[in-house]
Design brief:
The chain is mainly α and about 170 residues long. The chain has two domains: about 90 residues, Zinc Finger, Delta Prime, domain 3, CATH 1.20.272.10; about 40 residues, no CATH class. Helices cover about 55% and strands about 0% of the residues. It has seven helices and no strands. Helix 3 packs antiparallel against helix 4 and helix 4 packs antiparallel against helix 5. The protein starts with a helix and ends in a 36-residue tail after the last helix. InterPro entries: AAA_ATPase_RarA/MGS1/WRNIP1, DNA_pol3_clamp-load_cplx_C, MgsA_C. It holds the Pfam family MgsA_C. This is WRIP1 ATPase. It comes from Chloroceryle aenea. GO terms for molecular function: ATP binding; DNA binding; enzyme activator activity; single-stranded DNA helicase activity.
Length: about 170
């Protein structure tokens, strides 16, 4: 019932708050109470990107490895794997930079008046002669061919200068 959601919330918030003891407690309470370890492992995958993000990009690798390990060996052997992941996450630095930026992009899409802007011609794929004749891909600068970063626009004209990593109004 409701305790299922209360316990996963407590685990999530304990890891977010960097409390490794509370994190282990809530994990053990869930697992010893019969919670599906794969459910916990899926939540850890989400936590790795939502709460740790770019502060420690290896957190996602840890979470996926924990999920796969739980899938391979099951309970009770996988409990220590989940415990390791939970402590790693509690101790990890936290960043919601990508989470916020992606939320800003979604808001931009929802609030855009009328149809969304087209993909700029230079960014379009041109697999046919007709597409090439229409200007698809024309002027695109293939970055790996340059020693220095190239100046090139990647957003539609209407969104030039938009920075989704800054707070949106």
């Amino acid at each position: 019932g409701e305790e299922h959601y209360n316990c996963i919330s407590a685990l999530h918030k304990s890891m977010r708050g960097s409390d490794e003891n509370a994190s282990l407690y809530w994990l053990a309470r869930m697992l010893e109470g019969g919670e599906d370890p794969l459910y916990v492992a899926r939540r850890l995958v989400r936590f790795a990107s939502e709460d740790i993000g770019l502060a420690d990009p290896l957190a996602l690798t840890q979470a996926v490895a924990a999920y796969q390990s739980c899938h391979f060996i099951g309970m009770p052997e996988c409990e220590v794997i989940l415990a390791q992941c939970v402590v790693y996450f509690a101790r990890a630095p936290k960043s919601i930079e990508v989470y916020r930026a992606y939320s800003n992009v979604k808001e931009c899409l929802r609030m855009h008046p009328g149809p969304l802007p087209p993909v700029p011609l230079h960014l379009r794929n041109a697999p046919t002669r007709l597409m090439k004749n229409l200007g698809y891909g024309k002027g695109y600068k293939y970055n790996p061919m340059y020693k220095e970063p190239v100046e090139q626009d990647y957003l539609p004209d209407e969104l030039k200068g938009t920075d989704f990593f800054k707070e949106q109004k």
